[in-house]
Amino acid sequence: MVCKKVAVLFSGGKDSCLALHMALKKDYDVKYLLSVMPDNFDSFMFHKPDLKLLKKQAEMLGIELIVRKSKGEKDKELEDLKKLINKIKGKAEIIVVGGIASSYQGKRIKKICSELDLEFYAPLWDYSDSDVWNLLLKEKFKVILTKITCEGLGKEWLGKIINKKKVEDLKVLSKKYQFRSDFEGGEAESAVLYMPEFKKEIKIKFDIKSEGKYRHWLKIKEIK
């Protein structure tokens, strides 16, 4: 059987890493990691990762990373995404995405794939908050939060590995403060420091920056 060649829309966060993991378990041949790097820290479409960490994750996976910069302007960033995906047209047949419930994002990416005659694969679509976290824990992922923008999550959550106890705490807080514990509403962003396909765990040193009462993020100083 010929393995289908795929490219993964990759932010280095828990959802895109988990989608990548599921694609590999399906025996897809993952050729590329595609990442849009918005100038805007609060992009409409994209999680803005730390570029050095993103490159380290790609190195740990041994998969080629292709990055395209974007001003992060609404709708215009879709054109940047389309140009990025078009780069691998003819080299991959399927685009893998880590979307769970964001119809805003999913519909737009699916439309681009249709226009470029590529298959669209979203293995986590319609997963519940619990489904996602349970699978991450089961598969031994090491996930940290890198940015928080909602009430109920303090900056003490940043940079800490999310274990089973923290997932339970997240569920309690999400009910109390009315946010999704998988952060599909943009309440927080994450990064994966280890997954089964990494050559080794990534180690980081960081500072925490804040802007107002509910907005905090990591400023990474060192990556090993």
Description:
The chain has 224 residues and is an alpha/beta fold. The chain folds into two domains: 5-121, HUPs (Rossmann fold, 3-Layer(aba) Sandwich), CATH 3.40.50.620; 143-223, Alpha-Beta Complex (putative n-type atp pyrophosphatase, domain 2). 32% of the residues lie in helices and 25% in strands. The protein is built from six helices and nine strands. The strands form two sheets. Strands 3-2-1-4-5 form a five-stranded parallel sheet, sandwiched between helices. A four-stranded antiparallel sheet has the order 7-6-9-8, covered by helices on one side. Strand 1, helix 1 (14-25) and strand 2 (29-38) form a beta-alpha-beta unit. Helix 3 packs across helix 4 (103-115). It is globular.
Question: What attributes characterize this protein structure?
Answer:
224 residues; Rossmann fold; 2 domains; five-stranded parallel sheet; four-stranded antiparallel sheet; 6 helices; globular
- Percent range for helical residues? 25-40%
For the record, give the distance between the C-alpha atoms at the N and C termini, rounded to a whole number.
Answer: 38 Å
* Class from secondary-structure proportions: alpha/beta
Please indicate the percent range of residues in DSSP E strands (runs of 2 or more): 25-35%
> How would you spell out the order of helices and strands?
EHEHEHEHEHEHEEE
The radius of gyration over CA amounts to 17 Å
CATH architecture of the largest domain: 3-Layer(aba) Sandwich
The CATH superfamily of the largest domain appears as: HUPs
Q: What is the helix tally?
A: 6
Q: Which regions have little confidence, pLDDT < 50, spanning 5+ residues?
A: none
Rough shape? globular
